[in-house]
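Q: Sequence in, structure out?
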Amino acid sequence: MLACGSTKSPATSTDPSNPDDDPADLAIPATDSINNGRFTTSPACAQCHSNSTDADAMRDEDDREIAPYDLWQSTMMANAARDPLWRAVVSAEVAAHPDSKDAIEAKCMRCHAPAASEEARMSDLTMAMDLLKADSDVGNLGRDGVTCTVCHQIEADGLGSDTSFSGGFVTAGTGSIYGPHDDNFAMPMEHHTGFSPVHSEHTTSSELCATCHTLFTNPFDDQGAPTTVEFPEQTPYLEWQNSVFASGDEAATCQDCHVPDTSVDGQAITTAIARNPGGFDFGQVDDRSPYGRHIFVGGNTWIPAIIRDYADVLSPLASAAAFNQTIAAARYQLGNKTATVELSGLVRTADRLQLSVRIANLSGHKFPTGFPARRVWLELVVEDADGAVVFA
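A: Exactly. Output:
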């Protein structure tokens, strides 16, 4: 956190080697509710897609609350624009290449603040990190991270193609909210938000996720000039596409792991997908299946903990309890569903111990994947018969 706190502001960087020279202000405002007809911030969706003590909707077989808004709000998706590490990295890149500030910030915000990026495009505005603190539609949409009306408005055309990668998604901003269900009871959404539910299976495809989770950037040459070389900054989708999880007996989409349609106990979920804004069940809404739990769990526990602990500075929507739930889910997935470790061939010769270690990757892509600074360590501890550590 101290490293992030000493990083220079993109708008005012002068000497990034001097942490006392106008240090960055990490404070970021809370998200206000806005709805401009093209996009809305998540509280509008929470009117019907959050849990209520007076409604049975959006609960699993054990009556656990699994509303989309409630699960999403503490994820890295929701907090993509509040992430202090990401903001520090962008600031450092801009400080190193100030002449390319606009291009760097626009590229990075395309997927960390996608609604703001699309709103800026439609409004003919220049996308910049400073907008994240602005009291405007773009600012509030940006602070809402990877928000509901971005993912659910992405058009199906072109998904999975090279042009769709690196934030190449397309939204029309016409109010069509895509989802996996047909025969929808549309009136409440249309009345309360102005948006309309539309059936489309592409929301359950890995190609939807590929738009931001396949990222190529253009590095600078030795003189600091941008090049046309495409550097694969992260490629989880392409890794998945070339794995056994893309097809065959072990096939699984991104959503199967990150927006699972089963409960924590592995039971298929069937539930109403909304309740009314008054907190009660809609009489006209039947239980639906599949129902995806919007947990978006990955391997990141550090940044959610920072945002939780510095909520007075970073102003997230979620409570500390919600962040704790997301962190616990990530740790469970890392410990139980990411990889297996098998030891074999244990041989001791005098004071020498030899063994083979086999690690099987269960994640569906490289492990670790995504942001290239991530690392995994294998720790081997040897104890004697009394439990004392003799090697570590």
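The two ends are 29 Å apart (CA to CA).
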